[in-house]
Amino acid sequence: MINREAGVFQTSYRSDMALYTLPLAKITVWVTLGFLLILPLPLMLGNNQHAMSIVNTIALAAIGAIGLNILNGYTGQISLGQGAFMAVGGYTAAILSSRYGMPFWFGILAGGSMAALVGTLFGIPSLRIKGLYLAIATLAAQLIIEWTINHVSWIGGGAQSSIYVDTPTFLGLAFNNEFRRYYLILTFFLLAYFAAQNLVRSRVGRAFIAVRDRDVAAEIIGVNIFKYKLIAFAVSSFYAGVAGALWTYYLRIANYENFTLGTSIEYLTMIIIGGLGSVLGSVLGAIFIKLLPIALDLSVIRIAKGVFGIPYESVANFLANFQLFIFGALIILFLIAEPEGLARLWENIKRYFRLWPYAY
Q: Does residue 240 lie in a domain region?
């Protein structure tokens, strides 16, 4: 049937390892790609620069969240340094483009590679420490990298630690508006998403999960724990570096204020709410976290103006603190009510319709 499994009919290893086995799943993927690439979304939002900017920031955030989920969700290595690794990628791309005239695509790849190298370096302590102690080690990475950017003038570019870059161009086409940047960012997002989907289903991905679930048992059966922990740090940092480089080209400036500890905590919130150990959950978490402040602003402003007649200027400070309160409350709520996040809720919905009209 088109929407449910009625047996195992695979006749080859290739079909058994297919990313989407059900016809309905394949149709849904193609329809979604068409929605993103060709017709409705770009046409509906192409003239609305603000709406397109929201979509672009969600896609950028999703790339970094996918990388963090590979490390935290699939390998079980807690990291509080995602913002720092994004900074490494962003500043690497900015230096190569602004000082050495390298094209943007080279800057993105170099930013991801440099972040992977730095992330692997800071992942070395994971051989001896885990849990809270590893989180403190990655927090140290965040502080060390921030200090280095701010105090080494060759890297940060001066007192403000800002490096301006030109608008990226490809084959004479300048990505100088939100509509064009959308296709640039979407290309890297799709590559990141499907690469992660295939990685976690591979031998390396299964080793990640074994390290996360039972590291001692995994080592006994021959899994090189140190090797796969470093690979997880490298892959996660590469994703972060690519996201940081894209963010730099998107804003046309590399500034450390875009990659602070608050950024790392925000990405950690995304994967917790979206679902640890789920690539789709990373995307859902990015959508949720990026749209939540907008929804809160609109609702609070509407209530303040319509019900109480309070102007926006009077509630601006309240909104900033109220968003932090909501973030913290949501983390606690999801940890208690649904530890597996939005991805689990989506799986429950799919399972219901797959089994309907039967109860089980």
A: yes
User: Does 121 map to a domain?
Assistant: yes
Biggest CA-to-CA distance, the chain: 67
**Rg of the chain in Å (alpha carbons):** 21
Q: Which CATH number characterizes residue 56's domain? A: 1.10.3470
Question: Rounded to an integer, what is the distance from CA 297 to the centroid of its chain?
Answer: 23
Any alpha helices (H) in 38-127, and if so which ranges? 40-45, 49-69, 82-100, 104-123
Kind and range of the H or E run holding 164: strand 162-164
Residue 168 φ then ψ, to 5°: -65, 145
Q: What CA–CA distance (Å, rounded) separates 113 from 237?
A: 8
| Contact predicate 101/94, CB 8 Å | no
Question: Which element (helix H / strand E) includes 238?
Answer: helix 225-251
Q: Quick: pLDDT tens for 236-267.
A: 999 999 999 999 999 999 988 889 898 998 99
Strands 253-255, 169-170: pairing is: unpaired
- Comparing CA positions, the residue from 133, 150, 165, 168 lying closest to residue 84 is 150
Query: Which 3 state secondary structure label does DSSP give 162?
Result: strand
Domain for residue 360, yes or no? no
Q: Which residues of the chain have pLDDT under 50?
A: none
pLDDT in the model for residue 43: 60
| Structural domain count, the chain | 1
* 293 burial via Cβ count (<10 Å: 0-12, 13-18, 19+): middle
Give 235's strand partners. none
